[in-house]
Amino acid sequence: MAHITSEKEKHADISNSPSEKSNPSVKASTFPLELDENNDGKVKNAYFGSNQHHVFSTPKSLSHWTDVYEKSKYEGRHRFDPQLQWSPSEEKRLLRKLDLRIMLWVWIMFSSLDLIRNINRAVSDKLLPELGMNTNDFNNGQTIYFFTFLAAELPGGLISKKIGPDVMTPIAIVCWGTICACQSLITSRTGYYVTRAILGLAQGGFIPEMVLYLSYFYKANELPIRLSVFYTVIPLTQIIGSLLAAGFLEMRGISDWSGWRWLFLLEGVMSIVVGILSFFFMPASVTQTSEILRGKAQWLHGKTGWFTPREEGILVNRILRDDPSKGDMNNRQHVDLRGLWNALKDIDLWPIYMLGVLAFLPYQPTANYLSLTLSTLGYTTFESNMLAIPGFILFFLNILFIVWLSEKVNERLILAAWSNIWMLPFFIGIVAIPKSTSYWVRYALLTCINGIPYTHAILVAMISRNANSVGTRAVGTAIYNMSYQFGSIAAANIYRNDDKPYYYNGNKILLGICCANIGLFGLTKLYYVKRNQRKAKAWNKLTEDEKVNYIATTKDTGMQKLNVVFAH
Description:
Layout lengths: L1 E2 L14 H5 L1 H7 L3 E2 L7 E3 L13 H14 L15 H30 L2 H4 L3 H4 L4 H29 L1 H18 L6 H15 L2 H10 L7 H9 L1 H16 L10 H23 L16 H4 L7 H14 L14 H8 L5 H9 L4 H14 L4 H7 L1 H21 L3 H4 L1 H15 L6 H12 L5 H12 L2 H22 L12 H37 L3 H10 L10 E2 L3
Antiparallel strand pairs: 1-4, 2-3
Helix pairs in contact: 4-8, 4-10, 4-11, 4-12, 4-13, 7-8, 7-9, 7-10, 7-25, 8-9, 8-13, 10-25, 11-20, 11-24, 12-19, 12-20, 16-25, 17-25, 17-26, 18-19, 18-23, 20-23, 22-23, 22-26, 24-25
Subcellular location: Membrane
Keywords: Membrane, Transmembrane, Transmembrane helix, Transport
GO molecular function: transmembrane transporter activity
């Protein structure tokens, strides 16, 4: 998302007028935003330097946003200073500090979720036969989990917005760690279903909470890279989980317990520890680091917190100059019914929601069933867990590269489509090879599918960028993740018991969805290009005075404003 106001406010215009082309020095010297020259509203440079003109450079704009921050009781308003200047080296140093103190712990918390939500390692250790279950029963349990996870997404996100993720998240982690440990006691299919349902309720809402939480600390052009790091949890936790499982599952027989029971118990205890520590390690905002546990953690944070007053000022003002809407609500302010409705009816976000349902559906069955498939093909429990690791390593490398490339070339949807383009030839191969093909060939194809360039981070960052308000961002990220869970529910029921172990019918369905997704990415790209062009046309019809008046008086909200463009 990029704000565009008038020339009087030193903001970029989304026009592509001859006057701009004939005088490029004007754009270079006065506009902090550069747009490309094909009039599709694509931002080339969205960085506001501390010594440049910015959104608060004019009295009228400053007065408007100051009033917004006071009315919302924005937690960083006491550090809001339009005159504050800082050097790039100061900002870079503070960014490293945020990565170490905020991003690292968010990564660890997500690891505690992903470690226990993926039960394929337990399934590889005879969980299904010992509970009298088959593949269809396993699918039903996964469907129940995804459904309750989905049902908790929006309520969990809204509760977190009200009480703060720094309060909500540690409680949730302790809860899901306890539930995971209780899975070690199940003795029947019913127990399996019940614990999967409760686990989904406990974990739902965490991911949108963390996306919103990270947006408090990082600018729009910094968030996608951090989200790519965030999603490296998936491959790295599976690698770590496979290594842990190799040891935990060998505990079979101790106290007459199966290995999968020890696995559930120990993974649950690990999550409980992370949840307890999160009470100490999660600040509510950059200006509230000394208030963790009401200041009782001074041994960890010091009497004044992590940042000096100047550092807090830099961190607050750099965020607001990048996106002033990030202060239109405080971090203990709930999204009311009107705000919820406005976010839900924002149809410009719906194409991304549709991608959330379908884009990664082909990947999920192969990933969830890999260990079970390998075990069915004759590999031992240990071999099945170890053979999953190469795919996770490829996944890790691909996700970092694709998101880095997306920001480097300033292209999102086309590169996001690469996830399905990558999978297409491998699905063709796995559908075409005969049953007599070597297991190692089948394993190689499955590994390549599981090494997908996972572009989920690009789409999540698009929701955050295109929200243009804290309320819409909170609701939009939750709805997007709900969309993803709808896809997960469908994915959990594609591989059927009568189709194992090669799942030819299921893979044909996944191949068809993969082809359709490539076309869907292209249509979504076209939609946002056309929307930006229509907004540009309406904006350019206004005179300079009308533009200034529009910005000060408009009732349009979020991305309905004419002076902002969609990132795509």
